[in-house]
Amino acid sequence: MAGVSPTPLLKDELDIVIPTIRNLDFLEMWRPFFQPYHLIIVQDGDPSKTIKVPEGFDYELYNRNDINRILGPKASCISFKDSACRCFGYMVSKKKYIYTIDDDCFVAKDPSGKDINALEQHIKNILSPATPYFFNTLYDPYRDGADFVRGYPFSLREGVPTAVSHGLWLNIPDYDAPTQLVKPRERNTRYVDAVMTIPKGTLFPMCGMNLAFNRELIGPAMYFGLMGDGQPIGRYDDMWAGWCTKVICDHLGLGIKTGLPYIWHSKASNPFVNLKKEYKGIYWQEEIIPFFQAVSLPKECTTVQQCYTELAKQVKAKLANVDPYFTKLADAMVTWIEAWDELNPSGEAPAKTSNVKAK
Ligand SMILES: O=c1ccn([C@@H]2O[C@H](COP(=O)(O)OP(=O)(O)O[C@H]3O[C@@H](CO)[C@H](O)[C@H]3O)[C@@H](O)[C@H]2O)c(=O)[nH]1
Ligand SMILES: [Mn+2]
């Protein structure tokens, strides 16, 4: 029928998860793209503070009191005063797909000046196969106007299911504190029109501010670790989740893509504060990365939960010598899986919150 807008893709199969400590006015700019979708807002910090959500959005909101009430003692695995709290939203969602975005990320424009529907591009990335076993030099062969190039084995052209779609950022790039300190005015103005699969056996620094994933394929691996209040490290939440997720995707034959879509990252967080949060991570990652590069998961591990529990064992055995924190983290990884399975037995109703649903 003329004038009837098409039903947005995955409208009832995708939740948008937003970690926040502030009012969500940023949603006004995303309204054309996000309004049809259900939001899961994870309110961090003081639960007595009211987070204002613009009218017309369908959402559920969880604050720390809700997390403690729903998880009981297992709430200890969910970070406080760090964006890592967002993973609680993945756990309580009942949808097949998740898109997570930070509240200082806005709609970017492509080189033609058109607003970028980041969610639509993530959905395209997630619904098309990935190619981790052989690199296609013309990038994503499943995009319109592209294909596999000469010499690409036909036996590999079916690809594998895509578990994660990792988007990028114009304006404020996701730099670590030292880089941000030496290049305070650097802005990313380079729009690269490419989506590519991260090859099997290669790790990558997963940023959580513009990220989509297939929750049914890889959800239990998306634990954002113990960060923030009471922890010796911060701003490595998404990195930890990305390293665990990548080794498990490699083991299970799943793919991870990076590139389009871009969002406009508007706020540079304080590099001095960031340095305090992340400096241990800058040392530790020189030992963490070789650990993940050497990880081997037994073939008996055929589910994400089994892989993740095995990974937690190896973290405890091989990283405790780096710092006692990793023993605590390994235990929290196990608690996370226990909580995930408690909230996600097959066919149960979703967790209820104490907050009023949107109007
Ligand atoms: O204590 C907190 C602080 C912030 N949040 C919410 O988390 C996101 C990201 O916050 P912010 O944009 O201030 O931080 P960045 O440094 O730009 O974030 C990048 O670092 C990663 C660290 O985890 C993060 O994923 C990257 O995007 C906002 O929505 C804040 O409202 C919070 O929940 N708790
Ligand atoms: Mn930010």
Automatic annotation (TrEMBL):
Pfam family membership, one: RGP
Q: What superkingdom heads the lineage?
A: Eukaryota
Extract one GO cellular component term from the record: Golgi apparatus
Which SUPFAM superfamilies does its entry note? Nucleotide-diphospho-sugar transferases
Keyword Nucleotide-binding belongs to the record: no
Q: What does this protein do?
A: Probable UDP-L-arabinose mutase involved in the biosynthesis of cell wall non-cellulosic polysaccharides.
Q: What is the name listed in the Swiss-Prot or TrEMBL entry for this protein? A: UDP-arabinopyranose mutase
Q: Which organism is it from?
A: Coffea arabica (Arabian coffee)
Taxonomic lineage of this organism? Eukaryota, Viridiplantae, Streptophyta, Embryophyta, Tracheophyta
Q: Which gene encodes it?
A: LOC113716660
